[in-house]
Amino acid sequence: MKRLESLDALRGFDMFFIMGGAGLLATIAAFFPDNAAWQTISEHMGHVPWDGLKHHDTIFPLFLFIAGVSFPFSLAKQKEQGKTMGAIYKKIIIRGLLLILLGMIYNGMLNFEFSTLRFCSVLGRIGSAWMFGALLFCSIKDWRKLAAIALIILVGYWLISAFIPSPEANGASSLSKEGNLACYLDSKILGSHCMVPEYDPEGLLSTIPAIATALFGMLSGLWLKQDEKK
């Protein structure tokens, strides 16, 4: 099975920014302080503090999407090799848990300071979101149902975020950091294991929409795979 060059190119684009491309562009922009185009590029090389969207905010979701696109091709290859669905499910779960473990190791697990060890991580979110997305993809054969599940996840998360404030919001908007339910759950459940005291950017409730990102990637991979047969 030949490699999908378009996916490799997109992966390379994403890895450029993951490996320091954002810092490189921001450094170049510093040499042109009066150039509006370069300063706009520089502004997009970092994350927004809370709400809004910049280019750098798309890099992690894009990586998860790419991981999703690859899965239908990987699944087909495993089936061609004669692997049973039980073995495939096992591999999915092991891969997901391994990424979660690697994320915890990156966060300092080997320092053995478990009282403040950050459980969540970028790798952990990729592992958990991809794992649940892959399990759904293998279990539900109809792409329409998978697309509906992804949409329900996103709409449901928006409804929860927009209309169910934190019990400790004290009048703050449910979309603010102070009134957000996801932040509240992170602070209460994860506590000292959060990245910051108020919440974790790869926390519990906010991982759910990431499953939809992985699913949309898998659906895209499925359609690309079908186009290859034509």
Low-confidence stretches: none
Strand percentage:
under 5%
Number of helices: 8
Structural category: mainly alpha
Major sheet: none
What's the end-to-end separation, in Å?
15 Å
Radius of gyration: 20 Å
Question: Helix and strand succession?
Answer: HHHHHHHH
Overall pLDDT level: 94
Please provide the count of β strands. 0
Any idea what the shape is?
globular
Helix content: 55-70%
Question: Could you please describe the fold and organization of this structure?
Answer:
There is one protein chain. The protein is mostly helical. Helices cover 65% and strands 0% of the residues. It has eight helices and no strands. It has helices at 5-30, 36-43, 59-80, 85-106, 122-139, 143-163, 181-190, 208-229. Helix 3 crosses helix 5 (122-139). The longest helix has 26 residues, at 5-30. The protein is globular and about 55 Å long. It starts with a helix and ends with a helix.
What is the structure about, briefly put?
The protein is mainly alpha-helical and 230 residues long.
